[in-house]
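Title: Prediction job returns without error message
Component: structure pipeline
Severity: low
Priority: P3
Assignee: unassigned

Description:
Job completed but the reporter wants confirmation the result is attached to the right record. Sequence as submitted:
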Amino acid sequence: MRNYIIGFALLLLAFYMMVQQEPYQEVSKDLQGFDANQTVEYRERSSEVTSEDLVSVVSSPQSTETFKTTTAVSKEVISDGLSNQFSSLQFSNQTGGVRNITLHQHYRLNKEFSLKQEGKTFLGLSFEDTNGNPLESKIPDPRAFKNIKVSDTQKIVYQWKSKQNLLIERSYWRDSNDSYVFHHQTKFSNLGDQPINLERIRLHLGSAFQIPRMYNPFDNASTYLNVGYYNAGPAIPEGCSCATCSGRIDGEADEFIQLNEMGPSGKMDVRYLSQARWACVNNQFFVNLIRPVGDMADVRIYGSSLQRIEDQNGTEIMGIEGAMSFPVGLLEAGRSKSYNFDIYSGPKDYMGLKSLGGEQKKVMQFGVFWWISEPLSWALNYLSTLFGSYGFGIIALTIIVKLLLWPLTAQATRSQKKMQALQGPMSKLREKHKGNSQKINQEMMKFYKEHKVNPFAGCWPILIQIPIFLGMFWMLRSASELYGQNFLWANDLSEQDNVSTIQGFSLNVLPIFMVATQWFQMRLNPMQMGPQMSEAQRINAKMMRFMPFMFLVFLYFFSSALVLYWTIQNLMTILQTLITKTNHEIPEQVAEVASKSRKDLEGSAPSISVDISDDERRYRNLLGLKIKGSINLKKLEENYKTRMLNYEEKKLAQMSASKRRISMEKKDRLQEAYDYLKDMSDKQS
């Protein structure tokens, strides 16, 4: 009882320390009131053109023309277009890029979301030299692009023409069967009679900001903000500047650089890709992804943190942006160069991304357990569609996984029972070869082989459940399908099942159910603390008793979807344990193994089986009898009468009401144990 009190005290201390994280709590509290779709103020970078009048003279040593322009920065003009039931786009005259993508509540997305592009526009265009230095003045007025009216209503076209006869035409269109996909072409035309050296073009990957979430001390929001890419070509010998030599767990061809990996400068090291298949910027549930039509060679990937945006309450939100650049080179007089891209701006939906091909499913970032997460994601979507609820989909998926593992778990249970039955003979083996560890190991392995017992069989269910749990964890943490999905009292399966908030601390009910089921599960399989157990085994048994409370601390702040999965798994384990306990085949097998082992060691048949029921073991301990061997009736009577003296009427009358009640309960248990063992002794005689 003392250990349980200490455990609960430590648990309360852990919760208290979490609540005292005031700065983080205040940010979390502010984020809960922040609307991701509201208009916010953005502190633009100093590299943006912000003056009303700009005079610039740029002459590249490698260029055959000189850009010399005096102009005023235009006002930004926003135009709507290319809408379908999945999303709507807003375009800007700022280099003809995309200012906002509104994702509609449709299909597997249960909550509308706006991918606002603060600062530079998504697919915004700029120039750089061969060394990667920006050449902002080549487009002195980035908002001078004009929206050209075309006959095709499903097409948006922006144009800009320099005084040096360079025409840039940016076209967007969308097929009727596309979901979150649209298509883009950038075309450079030299209308003059002299070649133009365009060197390199930098295409903006867009920006992403953290989604307001409830406080979680174990889940850093900055890990969800990434600049990513897929390199389909060989490694370039540039140190660790390419994915194939990065050594990250995300894989060799694909890499995702997190915001918290960019260091004090707020900029990541430039990645050089030999053959880029796609590049992206994403947060926890949504992504902007650019895929060239045909892998593109000699691509550079840039990424940096954004100066944080603020709402009216002063809440700071972390953000990230990225860009990719590629060579254009010399553009001959009268010639044109076109570059086509397929664009995906939408939720991180595994099924949708997989259908696009090109390894775009890697955006899900399932890590080393992708081989588990991918089929689980497919199964979750299928079952959720079948049952009409993602909550029921998670329940059904958990039951199916548990049923698939059922034979293995049953085999482990049988092995554990056999191991318990052999504890006595094994202790004699250790005693016989005491001081010779090598001989003990040899004899033990021989002993296991003779009795067909695998000492490691009981570990397999745990070893298999660990990757399944981690695969489920990585899948659920970035599944946009769960965003905004409600189930029972949980308003959002991707978030904690918050039922109330007390002093800024979220009160969650589902984790309490989870720990209750896990505690009951352990009660059904108590670890025996017999005299044959080593000190290490005793310490391990005590640690296992506190395991449910450790899970409570860890999972309390995670999504209700993950806690729901673990709770249902506990319930299935309880069901399997109860079924196993009613199976008489296992005790018979155990008894046979125990009998054979004692014959081998003692040379004669035992009077009773070494294996006894949990009830008999508990009653023998209660009355001070030996666990092994037949019941000594005389000893039973003596111990029973001695213990019953503690509960005489005189002593009970002197106790308080609470102590008397507890003593009466102990007296009843003692009487129950005596009756049980007396009846068993009579049957044996």
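Comment from assignee: result matches the submitted record. Confidence is low (pLDDT under 50) at residues 15-70, 584-589, 601-610.
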